Structures are given as C-alpha cells and as structure tokens.
Amino acid sequence: MLAIVKAKGSLLYDEDGNGYIDGIASWYTCMYGHCNPFILEKVHRQMQQLDQVVFSGFTHEPAVKLSEELIKILPNNQEKLFFSDNGSTSTEIGIKMAFQYHFNKGNKRNVMLAFEDGFHGDTFGAMSVSGLSVYNGPFEDFFIDVERIPVPNKENSEAIIAQLESKLKKHKIAGFIYEPLVQGAAAMKMYDAEGLDAILRVLKKHDVLTIADEVMTGFGKTGTNFASDQIETKPDIICLSKALTAGLMPMAITSCTQDVYNAFYSDELAKGLFHGHTYTANPLACTAALAGIELLRSDEIQKNIVRIIDSHKAFGTKMESYPKVLNIRQCGVIFALDLNVHMERYGSLRDKLFNHFMDNGVFLRPLGNTIYILAPYVISDVELKKVYRVIESALELI
Predict the structure, then answer these.
(1) pLDDT at 139
(2) Of 147, 216, 221, 314, which residue is 20 to 30 A from 179 by alpha carbon distance?
C-alpha cells in the first residue's frame, strides 16, 4: 500500500514527495482536479453555515439548489430526485424503485433484466444485477432473480431483440439496468447506441422500467453531460454518484420520471419508498455537487473536454500501428486499448504493468489486458503526453 499525503490538480503525491499523474481521476470522481480551489471555497463557506442535518422532515438550501440545477442538465424526462450516499446505493434504490413501482400498481414482478458483464455495485441488489462473477461468487446463492442479454453491436441487434421478446413472455420483468454506452468494470467495453435504443423501445412497450447506471459515465465523460443524451429513448430512472460531487465527498442521487414518482405518491404509507441514509443530501456534499455542475457547464471545462477527446484520437491513431495492440476504442474522454496478449485480470503481468506505470509517475489500473485512461478534465497537454509515453514504453514489457 502506498501512502498518499497530498493531491492537487491531476497529481497525487506520496509521503516521499513523489508525484503521480492520476490517469483515472481516482476512479472517475475527481474530474475537475484534486482540491479544486473553486469547489473548496464554496464548501468552506457552507461548512461554516450548515454542516449536517437529517434529511427526513427537513430540507436545506444546498439540496434545493442542487435539485434545480441538476434537473436542468439531466435528460428532459427526469423530474424527481432521491438522495443517498454512494454509487451502489444509487443503483440499489433504482432496483427497489422498479420492483415497488409494479407492486404499488398491483402488478407484482419479480425479475430484473441486465446486460452480461455489467457492474452496478457491491450491495446485494447491485451485485445481483452485476454480471462479473469474479466479484460476486460467494454471494450468488442469495441474489434476486436476474435475466441477462448481450450488449448490442452492429451484428447481433436482431438476435438480441428476439431473445428479449422471448424473455418478456417467460418472465415478469420489473426493470432493466444498464451502463449506457460503456461498461466500466468490464474493461471499458463500449457498445452500439442504436442497438441499445432498440432494446429500450421494446421494454417501454412492455412497461419495463429502464434504469441507466450513469455512476461512471455521468457528468461529461462520454462527450455529453450524460451518456443517455446520446440515446433517443430516455431512461425512466438514472443513477448518479462519483463525479456528482467532484470526488470531494460521497453522495449519490437516483432520478426518475414523474410517472415513476406518481406510483409512490399516496396517502397509503406502505406505498412510500422506505430507504434512507444518515448522510443523505449532506449540505457539504450538495454544495460540492453544485460547484461541480457550475464547472462542468463552464467554457473552460467544455473546451478541455474537446481537447482531451482530440488528443486521445491522435494517440489512438498512432497506436494502431503497434502489433502488440489488439484493439483501440474511445467514447468521449474515455480511452482504452487491449493488448494482444492473454492476461489474468489481476495476474502477474497486470501487476508488472501497474508497477511500471507507477515507477514512471503515472497512476493507471489495467483491467486484465486492457489499459485505459479517464483523467481529470484539468490534465495538461504535457501531462497527457507523459501518460501516452508511459503506455507506449509499457509495450516493451510484454
């Protein structure tokens, strides 16, 4: 374990003063840079006014303002927000919404639908719908019922729709949860937007709630505010965390349409969604999120996003000529390449690559034979070029 004592911008510093470019924005959270002074100043002022209050029977200005500003940038069918405290709980809540939505309407459904190789978190509902058994093996006997379909590509869309229609006839499917466009933990697996749209259209016809897990993809990473912006059929529910608060504090939000909300709005207490966390809508986290949204919408960050996208494209073109590179893909600022070699997800060669990156001052976390970059929007061209050089030099190790 390496002790990190300081962070600023795109850099992490260890106790010996060594600096490391944070090439994955600390799991895609610190997208505006570590210790961003604009965010820190806003939170510093808020913590002198109101630090924490229970979000049950009370509300406060940071939560109200955040709700107003977030609704403005979410897909336009999103109307209501449910606060919680991390990515896993945001998807857990989305799953609970799907089940209880049908239950409240007197049409109980007991199955979820998900993509193969998806990842949605570490709580039980989130694990249930995740398809990466490397994380979930010991718990699978306790999971909710889940049916799975492959992610769409240009060749398999018709077959997936036929498979989907069959599953809809056989099972009482409440909801479909998916990572739009990019499956993060599946090694940045990218897939077809048109194929996803076709799936969503079929599910809408069958009153299956669609749940976009944008915990990783949200807040500009795919080139638009949300990956769902690039898909014609909008989700009923969206799960948010990570970059929501710019990496400063933990918080999550699960948004939904008015129709979903109406299924819970009743004088019958039992129809309410009973889910709450002590730090739900913490005022400091809400303030950080508000500052993050302001930065995301700024000309500077938008220009930086375009700059990084263009830089990755140029790097990808260069890497196409390397025989040790099997595949290159990009979605917005998310860049990934697969090495032309078999590697265990957490094996010795992967560790060798990780150590090489760190020894050269770059923090990247290979996923098996996949090397990916998801750096903060404030990363400089000089820092980006160093990341690229270190990846190129790593090819000599295999």
Answers:
(1) 86
(2) 314
Q: What mean pLDDT comes out for the span 364-375?
A: 96
Q: ∠ CA(347), CA(348), CA(352), 5° rounding?
A: 125
CA 300 and chain centroid, separation: 23
Cα separation, 94 vs 170, whole angstroms: 23
Q: Which of 218-222, 239-243, 380-384, 393-397 has the lowest mean pLDDT?
A: 393-397
**49: which 2 tokens?**
């006014």
C-alpha 287/C-alpha 160 separation (Å) is 43
Sign of CA dihedral 225, 189, 109, 165: positive
What lies within 8 Å, CB to CB, of 192 at 6+ separation is 151, 152, 153, 154, 157
For residue 382, CA distances in Å to 28, 355, 387 come to 20, 21, 9
pTM: 0.97
The predicted structure's pLDDT at residue 133: 66
In the chain, the domains with their CATH numbers are 4-35+299-397 (3.90.1150.10), 41-296 (3.40.640.10)
Beta strand 209-213 with 173-178 is parallel
Query: Predicted confidence band at 191 (pLDDT cuts at 50, 70, 90)?
Result: very high
Q: Quickly count: other Cβ atoms within 10 Å of residue 13's Cβ.
A: 15
Q: How does residue 349 score in pLDDT terms, banded at 50, 70 and 90?
A: confident
- Which residue's structure tokens are 């599946």? 186
